[in-house]
Design goal:
Blueprint: H1 2-5, E1 10-12, E2 36-38, H2 51-62, H3 72-75, H4 112-117, H5 122-126, H6 139-148, H7 153-162, E3 167-170, H8 172-185, H9 190-206, E4 214-217, H10 219-223, H11 225-234, H12 238-258, E5 265-268, H13 270-280, H14 290-298, H15 301-313, E6 317-320, H16 322-326, H17 328-335
Parallel strand pairs: 3-4, 5-6
Antiparallel strand pairs: 1-2
Helix pairs in contact: 6-8, 7-9, 8-9, 12-13, 12-14, 15-17
Length: 336
């Protein structure tokens, strides 16, 4: 019985219905006592959201005849726990860490009857005498988590960029903006992951293939990440641009070959590389990496055609010529 666990009782650690075979003492066995644990000194902690109950209690407490709660002071019980060191009664809504009422849970007003109406057994609720309601995390709380948590998602993003030799710094304004947006998400600390992923998704994709080795995430980056990324890419050295684009094409080439069988290889000829470099450095694609450009330009068509031809003919070498680079759809049909 689960209720017995909450009281002073001995609980057997053996599985119910399991057959136990003990050797007789004459054959080397022992008459060992059954293993059990006493629950007297075990602290049981239960948690739950009770979102519907919180809403019901809030509606009940905010219901005021003619817009005025005339009986509020008469109906409000005074708890012994709401006294400060001087014996003065403190208001229930007082919280030195946040504005009154902001993010506070109405579950602190819940009584035993409320939990029973929510579906809990009276016998169970009666065995849980201490009940505490947690307030929602506000922007200041989320900012502290972002800065000081051991497994902070911000630190994880910084480590990800350092893997590409890119240092990311974050201003205090950026941390504040992230925390405020995460608070609007209403999902607690998980909202920080959502906002940071939304802010830095394109940065993680584009920056590794550029000459950028350091950037600062400010409030503008959080609010308009795409525009901030374009401005950052403009700062890329023009002299390094061609070399970086070429390395970027090689990175796309490597990715393509990873998708092919071990004995199959595909590569860009020199003429094809030159043509794709010029296309990727044109004004239309100047803010796009060559890796991204090549991926969108060829799509999955090139990979599928190579796999199909290899499967039918066993061909293992596929040079990607200038003609294929200039008009992949037409030339790949000729391959077929």
């Amino acid at each position: 019985n689960f209720l017995k666990l909450l009281e002073d009782t001995d609980v057997s650690l053996e599985r119910q219905g399991e057959m136990q075979f003990v050797l007789p003492a004459a054959l080397g066995g022992s008459d060992a006592a059954k293993q059990s644990v006493n629950t007297r000194n075990i602290l049981f902690i239960f948690s739950g959201a009770f979102s519907g109950l919180d809403k019901d209690i809030r509606q009940k407490r905010e219901k005021k005849p003619f817009g005025i709660d005339l009986m509020a002071q008469l109906d409000e019980p005074i708890s012994n726990n709401n006294q400060n060191g001087n014996g003065n009664v403190m208001e229930d809504d007082e919280d030195i860490n946040r504005p009154p009422g902001k993010g506070q849970s109405y579950l602190r007003y819940a009584e035993t009857a409320d939990f029973v109406r929510a579906g809990l057994e009276p016998e169970f609720v009666g065995r849980v005498p201490v009940r505490v309601a947690l307030n929602a995390l506000d922007a200041s709380d989320l900012k502290q988590i972002l800065i000081g948590a051991e497994g902070s998602v911000l630190k994880q993003f910084k480590r990800d960029f350092m893997g590409y030799n890119i240092r990311m710094d974050a201003t205090d304004d950026a941390l504040t903006a992230i925390s405020e947006l995460a608070e609007r998400e209403g999902t607690g600390a998980r909202g920080l992951v959502t906002i940071l992923e939304r802010t830095l998704r394109e940065h993680k994709f584009e920056l590794p293939s550029t000459s950028v080795t350091r950037f600062e995430m400010d409030a503008d980056t959080v609010r308009t990440p795409n525009r901030s990324l374009k401005q950052l890419l403009k700062s890329e050295s023009a002299g390094d641009g061609a070399g970086i684009k070429l390395r970027d094409l090689k990175r796309w080439e490597t990715k393509l070959n990873r998708k092919l069988p071990d004995l199959v290889s595909a590569w860009l000829t020199d003429d094809a590389q030159t043509y794709l470099l010029r296309r990727s450095m044109s004004k239309k694609h100047e803010h796009q990496s060559a890796f991204s450009f090549a991926g969108q330009y060829f799509g999955t068509m090139l990979e599928k055609v190579i796999l199909l031809i290899h499967g039918k003919t066993g061909q293992a070498a596929f040079p990607i010529s200038l003609n294929v680079a200039m008009d992949p759809e037409v030339e790949l049909r000729k391959w077929m």
